């Protein structure tokens, strides 16, 4: 007789932890919602939510904060996935808020900051008390200090100096009326873990994540694929290059990276040898300052 | 102008190797580090991250720009918040990730100064291994004792003492031996089953990733080698089956009309399909009809798996109930005798009312007695203490409104622990570890 060693791999351990967190929120908080961007992290989070409650349906809605600057592939993917899972989709629309005059877009066209008031209004309107986000601690210095259960006051603000201690796996989900908890089930996953899980579980992802010849322009050392929101400016040369997206944010600000990785396996090989963090490589919005993420989080960002 | 980066050559030897390492089956080791900035803790963590290639080019460049001295200050890699960089201190527990071909590591970096008990207890609560840093020039300080004690209180199974700045004591074997002996003697008084002492220089990397030529007298492993090989599988309790019910899954759909499953995480022990089990508090017995894992049915479940258990009989089971074996049940009790780490500004006092969360069960409790307060530096028990202040540790007796199903923390970390919550502020104010009554 062989003795089983009763050990989980790192992916199975992370999966078990995330499922535990998701179930705990549903058991303890009245109206959770899962923030879904169509990006790989929220796709994995949604898959973990499915596994947490199978064979029942996911017992909470999915919310997309729609900046109106979407890659069409991402919207298509969102609608397909939501229909497959039979979950309710809530769209918090930034263009609607701009039209209503409740928020103003920044001069450079970024709608990153104004997503926050739109998100907070939607939370209030629907009475959501817990928001699942796909953030990982390895993404950013400020995120490294984030709890699994991150308490937010009635303005959605994060107070990094006054976080609840998080002991063992005993999460404290108690809140007063108007307050909420941001929950990050993927806290302990790294970018590579996410990709390995996508590979192992054969999870569908938008094709943007895989390399393909696309028309690109070069700006400040980064390649932007020409699309509805990125038009070549005077003096910019459009060229065809094999590129893929490492993160999927707003279509007017997310750069692509030169890549030959056309399969998930190849993406893993690429990431494993790449020595550039994903936000640094692709996000115009994080280059502003070393504390950009910290500042946005304090205001109630994801 | 910044040049556009080149695509990765996917057929290069490095890419093939990196892929193979990335997809290899690994396990996770959770580490807590303790020590102050002066001990070189941030430098050590920066070194581990950098040498294991967990630091990316742009992060390294940012640190290079910010470094003031002659060398790249790896400590800057770990400062997270603006206030921390401005004040040169670490405020809160930060989590770091790195991996080697054998293991992935989750490192809870706990600050040494501010709120040390609260932060160290938080970091150590999930740790398999704790690293305590000691400055070779200063030897074992009060703070080192405190950190070792907290690790033992939280029952972190493995302790590593990293004797740092060995380069500043001319790699003296005598200095190292004196510290090792002093620490070993101290550890013998605590519950530290496994102690390893490594002489290092975090700044230069000696004995961090590879064995150093500067310490020919040292026959042990490098720090990283030890982290990669330390045996943790047997640290878990696989004997006492404990399954706290977290959530009841009832699809109520046509396809799964009669499905009723009890979702939860195996706290300890092993559950198997066909096992005779008992449900607490009802005490009713039944058998396990099936266990569903994330990828469908499984024959058995063990910690830390999240599964859904189906029972043969239709019993009334809900969140907060516990499934165990009839011949091996936890203690059902309303009287808790526990070591408490208190984390609120307002002191803990007799007659105080608090909320308790223990496994998936939430009840209310009243403080009956503060038995003693422990001086974490001398381990002296002050039996005259009437209360526990912020960051104090002491033995406390509580009475709960409903029974909890408990084991001693020493035997079962999962069913021997609880948190205390202030019902007015909702803040987490204490961590409790049950001791035998």
Short description:
Chain A is α/β, with parallel strands linked by helices and 302 residues long. Chain A has nine helices and ten strands. In chain A, strand 7 and strand 8 (222-225) form a beta hairpin.
Radius of gyration of chain A, whole Å: 19 Å
**Computed structural class of chain A:** alpha/beta
CATH homology-level superfamily of the largest domain in chain A: HUPs
CATH topology of the largest domain in chain B: Rossmann fold
Summarize the topology.
The complex is a heterodimer of chains A (302) and B (437).
Chain A: H1 10-28, E1 32-35, H2 40-53, E2 62-66, H3 72-85, E3 89-93, H4 94-100, H5 115-126, E4 130-132, E5 149-152, E6 180-183, H6 191-200, E7 212-219, E8 222-225, E9 239-244, E10 257-258, H7 264-273, H8 278-282, H9 292-298
Parallel strand pairs in A: 1-2, 1-4, 2-3, 4-6
Antiparallel strand pairs in A: 5-6, 7-8, 7-9, 9-10
Chain B: H1 13-23, E1 27-34, H2 41-51, H3 57-66, H4 82-87, E2 94-99, E3 103-109, H5 116-125, E4 129-135, H6 142-153, E5 158-164, H7 173-188, E6 194-199, H8 223-229, E7 242-244, E8 247-249, E9 261-265, E10 271-272, E11 276-280, E12 285-293, E13 296-298, E14 300-301, E15 306-311, E16 322-324, E17 331-342, E18 353-358, E19 361-374, E20 381-382, E21 393-406, E22 417-421, E23 428-434
Parallel strand pairs in B: 1-3, 1-4, 4-5, 5-6
Antiparallel strand pairs in B: 2-3, 7-16, 8-9, 9-15, 10-14, 11-12, 11-16, 12-13, 12-15, 17-21, 17-23, 18-19, 18-22, 19-20, 19-21, 22-23
Could you characterize what this model shows?
The complex is a heterodimer of chains A (302) and B (437). Chain A is α/β, with parallel strands linked by helices and 302 residues long. Chain A has two domains: 10-195 and 291-298, 3-Layer(aba) Sandwich (Rossmann fold); 205-286, no CATH class. Chain A is built from nine helices and ten strands. In chain A, α2 (40-53) links the parallel β1 and β2. In chain A, α1 packs across α2 (40-53) and α6 (191-200) packs antiparallel against α7 (264-273). In chain A, 53% of the residues are buried. The model of chain A has no long low-confidence stretch (mean pLDDT 87). Chain B folds into three domains: 13-235, 3-Layer(aba) Sandwich (Rossmann fold), CATH 3.40.50.300; 242-324, Elongation Factor Tu (Ef-tu), domain 3 (Beta Barrel), CATH 2.40.30; 331-434, Beta Barrel (Elongation Factor Tu (Ef-tu), domain 3). Chain B contains eight helices and 23 strands. In chain B, the strands form four sheets. In chain B, strands 7, 8, 9, 11, 12, 13, 15 and 16 form an eight-stranded antiparallel sheet that branches. A six-stranded mixed sheet of chain B has the order 2-3-1-4-5-6, with helices on both faces. Chain B is globular. The interface between A and B is large, with 81 and 92 residues.
């Amino acid at each position: 007789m062989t003795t089983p060693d009763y050990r989980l791999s790192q992916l199975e351990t992370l999966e078990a932890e995330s499922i535990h967190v998701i179930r705990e929120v549903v058991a303890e908080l009245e109206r959770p919602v899962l923030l879904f961007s169509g990006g790989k992290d929220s796709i994995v989070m949604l898959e973990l939510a499915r596994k947490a409650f199978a064979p029942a349906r996911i017992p909470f809605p999915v919310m997309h904060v729609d900046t109106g600057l979407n890659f069409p592939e991402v919207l298509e993917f969102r609608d397909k996935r939501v229909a497959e899972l039979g979950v309710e989709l809530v769209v918090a629309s930034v263009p609607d808020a701009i039209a209503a005059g409740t928020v103003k877009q920044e001069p450079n066209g970024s709608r990153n900051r104004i997503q926050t008031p739109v998100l907070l209004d939607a939370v209030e309107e629907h009475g959501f008390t817990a928001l699942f986000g796909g953030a990982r601690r390895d993404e950013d210095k400020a995120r490294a200090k984030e709890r699994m259960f991150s308490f937010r006051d009635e303005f959605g603000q994060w107070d990094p100096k006054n976080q609840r201690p998080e002991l063992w796996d005993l999460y404290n989900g108690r809140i007063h009326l108007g307050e909420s908890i941001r929950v990050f089930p993927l806290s302990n996953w790294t970018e590579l873990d996410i990709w390995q899980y996508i590979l192992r579980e054969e999870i569908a992802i938008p094709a943007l994540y895989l390399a393909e010849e696309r028309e690109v322009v070069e700006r400040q050392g980064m390649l932007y694929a020409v699309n509805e929101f990125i038009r070549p400016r005077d003096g910019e040369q459009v060229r065809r290059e094999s590129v893929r997206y490492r993160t999927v944010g707003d279509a007017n600000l997310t750069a692509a990276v030169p890549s030959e990785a056309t399969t998930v396996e190849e993406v893993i090989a690429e990431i494993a040898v790449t020595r550039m963090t994903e936000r640094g490589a692709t996000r115009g919005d994080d280059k502003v300052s070393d504390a950009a993420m910290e500042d946005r989080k304090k205001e109630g960002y994801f | 102008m910044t040049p556009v980066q080149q695509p990765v050559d996917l057929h290069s030897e490095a890419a093939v190797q990196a892929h193979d390492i990335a997809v290899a089956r690994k396990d996770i080791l959770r580490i807590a580090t303790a020590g102050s900035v002066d001990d070189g803790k941030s430098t050590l963590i920066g070194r581990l991250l950098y040498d294991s290639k967990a630091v990316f080019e742009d992060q390294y460049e940012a640190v290079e720009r910010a470094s003031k001295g002659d060398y790249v200050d790896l400590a800057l890699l770990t400062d997270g918040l603006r206030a921390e960089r401005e004040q040169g201190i670490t405020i809160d527990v930060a989590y770091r990730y790195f991996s080697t071909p054998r293991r992935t590591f989750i490192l809870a970096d706990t600050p040494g100064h501010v709120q040390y008990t609260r932060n160290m207890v938080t970091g150590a609560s999930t740790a398999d291994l704790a690293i305590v840093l000691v400055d070779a020039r200063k030897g074992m300080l009060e703070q080192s004792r405190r950190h070792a004690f907290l690790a033992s209180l939280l029952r972190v199974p493995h302790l590593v003492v990293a004797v740092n700045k060995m380069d500043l004591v001319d790699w003296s074997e005598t200095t190292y031996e004196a510290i090792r002996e002093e620490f070993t003697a101290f550890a013998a008084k605590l519950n530290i089953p496994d102690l390893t002492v490594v002489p290092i220089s975090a700044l230069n990397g000696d004995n961090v990733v590879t064995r150093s030529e500067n310490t020919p007298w040292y026959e042990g492993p490098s720090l990283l080698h030890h982290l990669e090989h330390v045996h943790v599988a047997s640290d878990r309790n696989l004997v006492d089956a404990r399954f706290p019910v977290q959530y009841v899954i009832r699809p109520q759909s046509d396809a799964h009309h009669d499905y009723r499953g009890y979702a939860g995480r195996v706290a300890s022990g092993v559950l198997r399909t066909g096992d005779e089990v008992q449900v607490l508090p009802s005490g009713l017995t039944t058998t396990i009809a099936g266990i569903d894992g994330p990828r469908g049915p499984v024959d058995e479940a063990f910690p830390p798996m999240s599964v859904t258990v189906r029972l043969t009989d239709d019993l009334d089971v809900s969140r907060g109930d516990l499934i165990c074996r009839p011949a091996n049940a936890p203690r059902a009790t309303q009287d808790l005798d526990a070591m408490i780490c208190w984390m609120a500004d307002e002191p803990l006092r007799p007659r105080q009312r608090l909320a308790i969360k223990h496994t998936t069960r939430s009840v209310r409790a009243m403080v009956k007695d503060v038995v003693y307060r422990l001086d974490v530096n001398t381990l002296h028990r002050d039996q005259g203490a009437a209360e526990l202040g912020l960051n104090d540790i002491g033995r406390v007796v509580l009475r709960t409104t409903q029974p909890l199903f408990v084991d001693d923390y020493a035997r079962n970390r999962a069913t021997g622990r609880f948190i205390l919550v202030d019902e007015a502020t909702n803040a987490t104010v204490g961590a409790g570890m049950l001791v035998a009554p």
